[in-house]
Amino acid sequence: MKSSKHLPFPRFVLAFNLSGDRMSIDQLLSILAIFVGVVAALVSGLSWRASQQANRAMIFEQRFAVYKDAESFLGTWVQRGTPDIDNGLRGLVDAWNRSHFLFAQDVTDYLRQLWLDAIKANHASHVIAGEYDGDHAQAVQTKFDLTTKHCAEESPLRQVFVKHMKI
User: Fold this and answer.
1) Helix, strand, or coil here: 9?
2) CB 119 within 8 A of CB 85
3) Buried b / exposed e across 135-167, counting CB within 10 Å, b at 16+?
């Protein structure tokens, strides 16, 4: 009569049984536990990898939003010939605030310099228009220099941001 502890198993299960005897339920459960543990480790590894990719994608989206805010500010500057201090500067300042947490110091410094240069260019525009007192020729040169500095074809904006945008 067969023992109730021994069950017939397929040949591949018998390969784990080195003694050649029939496997007990305890041995089968041990093999099953090892198999489940390996599968759990694989699933855990894949889940960790997916979460890392999701985190990188989220950081990229937030960094790209900062870039788009700065690019929008510069786009208006190029379109109008003068920076939009009334409406656009708020978006640039917000981008600068977020940059402290998302980028290295060089991006934050560039956005701050862009902000200060925009204020200088705006002041120069007022001098050129005769609304403020000042040297007209110097104001024209200042506005030209700052506009070409930030709004040239190869904008420093792209150069500063591109190394931080790769994930």
Assistant:
1) coil
2) yes
3) eeeebeebbeebbeebbeeebebeebbeebeee
Cα–Cα distances in angstroms (integers) from residue 47 to residues 5, 39, 44, 128, in the given order: 38, 12, 5, 60
Residues of the chain with pLDDT > 90, as a percent, come to 63
Beta bridge partners of 24: 6
CA distance 111 to 115: 6
| pTM score | 0.73
Q: Which residue has the tokens 């020729």?
A: 137
Q: Tell me the per-residue pLDDT of 88-118, one tens digit each, with 9 for 90 and over.
A: 999 999 999 999 999 999 999 999 999 999 9
Q: What is the mean pLDDT of residues 33-53?
A: 94
CA distances from 151 to 80, 84, 129 (A): 12, 14, 21
Residues 6+ apart with CB under 8 A from 155: 74
* pLDDT score for 1: 46
Listing DSSP states for 95-130 in one string gives HHHHHHHHS-HHHHHHHHHHHHHHHHHHHHHHHHTT
Residue the block writes with tokens 């904006």: 157
Cross-strand partners of 6: 24
